[in-house]
Structures are given as structure tokens and as C-alpha cells.
């Protein structure tokens, strides 16, 4: 939602401006990272506020390390947010994907550029063109996530952020 995008932008800008903040961790709520954009908003009149693509670029360009704590699912725009992060920690039961193609859309927040850079063109093309969701174990093998944990993903992401 626009409110989530605005909160992410505000939080990141505040963290970047605060010299006492050494790293940023982005997580979802209620055991899910993000299932992506609400497609009902795609047909709305022109929206005002931050858009997903520029937000992901803002995350990526942060001078401070940004770590995604992926629980549940990171799909569509949610995965694109995670792709903008410098590091990704996933719960062992997490699933990731870009399912937009199943409703006739291509990923719109530069996921088609970031995913191939991270996991290579063949694996990225498979994910982008089929819309399949991959489990955390496969994501680790592909290099999509840096670490898989069985315990609290948020605590693991904070540990990684403190380490880097």
C-alpha cells in the first residue's frame, strides 16, 4: 500500500540521516515479509507519493547495510524490496517469487534487472517467466538469500546487520 511504501521511505531516510544508526533491517508483520502490491490499486487514478521502483532504488543506494528478514512469503513487489536490500535472511519455511506473469504482468520495480544480477540469467528467467515460488533452500543455493534460519528471522537479520 502507499502507506507502507511511505513508511519504508521515511524510515530509511531517517536511518540514513542518523549517525547513530549503523544498519537497517526490513521485516514484515505477522510472519510474512510481503505478498507484494495490491493489484486493485493498479487501475486507480494517478497516485501521489512514493512508487515501488524508486523506493527499491533508495534501499539499494543506502550507504548503510540494509538486511531483509524474510518470513512467510516475499512475492512480487515484496521480493523486489528484498532484492534492493544488501543482504537477505530467510526463514527455512519462506517462499519467494515473482508471480505477476500469471496475471499477465511483468515485475515492475526493476526485479527483472536485479534478479538476474543476483542469481544469473537462466534461473532468473525461469522465475520471471513462470511465476513459480521457490523455497528458501533453493533460494540459498541460487544466491538469492545469504542465510537460512530455523529460529527468529528478525533476530538473525539483526545479528547479520551487526556483523556487517
Automatic annotation (TrEMBL):
A GO CC term assigned to this protein in UniProt: peroxisome
PROSITE patterns referenced in this protein's UniProt entry, alphabetically: ENOYL_COA_HYDRATASE (PS00166)
Pfam families named in the record: ECH_1
Top-level taxon: Eukaryota
Catalyzed chemical reaction(s): (2S,3S)-3-hydroxy-2-methylbutanoyl-CoA = (2E)-2-methylbut-2-enoyl-CoA + H2O; (3E,5Z)-octadienoyl-CoA = (2E,5Z)-octadienoyl-CoA; (3E)-hexenoyl-CoA = (2E)-hexenoyl-CoA; a 4-saturated-(3S)-3-hydroxyacyl-CoA = a (3E)-enoyl-CoA + H2O
Biological process terms in GO annotation: fatty acid beta-oxidation
Family: Belongs to the enoyl-CoA hydratase/isomerase family.
Name by which UniProt lists this protein: Peroxisomal bifunctional enzyme
Organism: Hylia prasina
Organism taxonomic ancestry: Eukaryota, Metazoa, Chordata, Craniata, Vertebrata
Gene designation: Ehhadh_0
